Amino acid sequence: MNFMKTPQIGIYATKDRLKAEAERLSACLNLPLAKQKNEYDYQVIVTPEGLGLRKTGTKILPLTIDFLSGRMTYRRQHASLRNEILARALGLKKKSPVKIVDATAGLGRDSFILAALGFEIEMLERSPIVHVLLEDGLNRAKLDPVAAPIVERMKLHQANAIEWFQQVDPDHRPDIIYIDPMFPERSKSALAKKDMRIFHDIVGADSDAEQLLNRALACAKLRVVIKRPRLSGFLADLEPAFSHTGSSSRFDIYLPR
């Protein structure tokens, strides 16, 4: 039987003048400082441009969260309630004030698009490392005059969504909960995106995704939306009320009991 070892992670400053920030992150994340470029399996790197996560000893580019990238800019510029399948799955209407919670924020891309469409989003991320990367990406986006008002609609929490939903005031329950679980990869072809390989190694699979779905159904007022690979089965074998299917993903919509 094969067991995947837990990756060793350190904090590394690429410039001497950034060592103070690296020490702050080391204390915040309870991770050791790396003295050499290839020390530890992974490194959270502190660079003049921001934070990144790199796999040492490889040529894979560091994973960074950049809401100003060309890819994100293109998607933002072309986003609309009609052509964004996620917006349709969430049942969003123009100027409809709904409270949306992204329970598995991850790289924050879907939340950014929803905020660009004018909606306020609360984002939950339980991984401390992903949280600091996401926070760094949001802070850099705030410096851009176009992205700044979008980011203002995104509120990030470091929290376990299951526990967070248990503590929600009944009078302040979210209308819509969106869940994009990190499922185990099924084949090498699913690992084509190198940044997602790094992300998966650090975060791992969501072994409690079924529990999260049940908790979300007890918390949401209007609907819970689960993102799944297009050809995969239903989460926990629970059939949704209906689905929206795209080229590679499927959005299963559950209506709370």
List keywords for this structure.
257 residues; 10 strands; Rossmann fold; seven-stranded mixed β-sheet; alpha/beta; S-adenosyl-L-methionine-dependent methyltransferases; 2 domains; three-stranded mixed β-sheet; single chain; 20% strand
Summarize the structure.
This protein has helices at residues 19-29, 70-78, 85-89, 109-116, 128-141, 148-151, 161-166, 194-203, 209-219, and strands at residues 9-13, 42-47, 50-55, 100-102, 121-125, 154-158, 176-179, 223-229, 242-245, 249-254. The protein has 257 residues and is α/β, with parallel strands linked by helices.
Topology of this protein?
Elements (H helix, E strand, L loop, with lengths): L8 E5 L5 H11 L12 E6 L2 E6 L14 H9 L6 H5 L10 E3 L6 H8 L4 E5 L2 H14 L6 H4 L2 E5 L2 H6 L9 E4 L14 H10 L5 H11 L3 E7 L12 E4 L3 E6 L3
Parallel strand pairs: 1-2, 4-5, 4-7, 5-6, 7-8
Antiparallel strand pairs: 2-3, 8-10, 9-10
Q: What does it look like?
A:
The chain has 9 helices and 10 strands. Strands 6-5-4-7-8-10-9 form a 7-stranded mixed beta sheet, with helices on both faces. It has helices at 19-29, 70-78, 85-89, 109-116, 128-141, 148-151, 161-166, 194-203, 209-219, and strands spanning 9-13, 42-47, 50-55, 100-102, 121-125, 154-158, 176-179, 223-229, 242-245, 249-254. It is an alpha/beta fold. It starts with 8 loop residues before the first strand and ends with a strand. Helix content is 30%, strand content 20%.
